[in-house]
Amino acid sequence: MTRMILNPMLACCLGFLILTGCTQNNKQPSATKTSNKTDGEIEVDVKPLVNRVLTQEEQNALTPDQVLTLLKEGNQRFVEGTLTARDHSKQVREAALGQYPKAVILSCLDSRVPVEDVFDRGIGDIFVARVAGNFENTDILGSMEFACKVAGSKLVFVLGHESCGAVNGAIDGVELGNITAMLANIQPAVDHFKEYKGDRTSQNPEFVKMVTAQNVLGTIDRIRINSPILKEMEDQGEIKIVGGIYNMQTGEVKLLEE
Asked: What CDD domains does the record tag this protein with (predicted)?
C-alpha cells in the first residue's frame, strides 16, 4: 500500500475547504457570484430550495393568524423580488400521496395575478380557486368547504385586484353571452354605491376602486351567509376569512379592514 504524506499546511487548507463545503450545503437557497455585468449588476447562480411538503401534523399545529403572517411575508418577498427558488420537480413527487395546504385563495381569472408567486408559495402550499371577478358561487363555496373542513386549511383569502376587467364590465353594464350572467355576481358591489354622486362609470378611478374593494368585502359576507360550515369554523377560531387587493404596479397585497 502506498501512503501519501501531506504537508501540514495543505492538510489544514483541505480540512477548511471540506468544512466550508458542508456548511454551505445546509444553507438553502444559496447564491454564488458568477460574473459582473457591464451595468454593474451581479449575476448569481441560485440553488433551488427543496421545501418539504407540509405534513398533516404540521398543518394542524398552524393557527389562522400564523398562516396569514406567512402569506404576508411571502408577498413581501414577491414585492422585493426575492422569491424562493424551489425544486418543483422534487415537490411534485413529495406531494403525490397527499396534500395539507395552509390556505384557500379565491382570486380573479386575470393572468397578471400569479397567485402562488404573489404569496411565494410552492406546490402543496395553497388551494387556489379562480373566476373572473373573484366572487363566490355554489361550486366555489363547496371547494372552500373541502379545503377547510376536509383538507384542514386554516385561512380563506378573497383576493381582488386593481384594473379588473370584470369589475369594469359590471360597472358599465356590459352584456355579452354568458359574460352577462357572470357579471351579475359583481353587480351588488356596484349597487352598494347607488348614492354616490360622482361619475359611476369605469372611467372614474375612484369609483372603480370603491367597487373593487366592496366586491371583495361583499364576497366575504356571502361566504359567511351561504356556508354555515365555514361560518361555524370561523366562529370557533378554526379558520379566518379575510380579503385584500393586489396592486398591479407594485405587486403588494393590501388587506382590507371589514
From this structure: beta_CA_cladeC (cd03378)
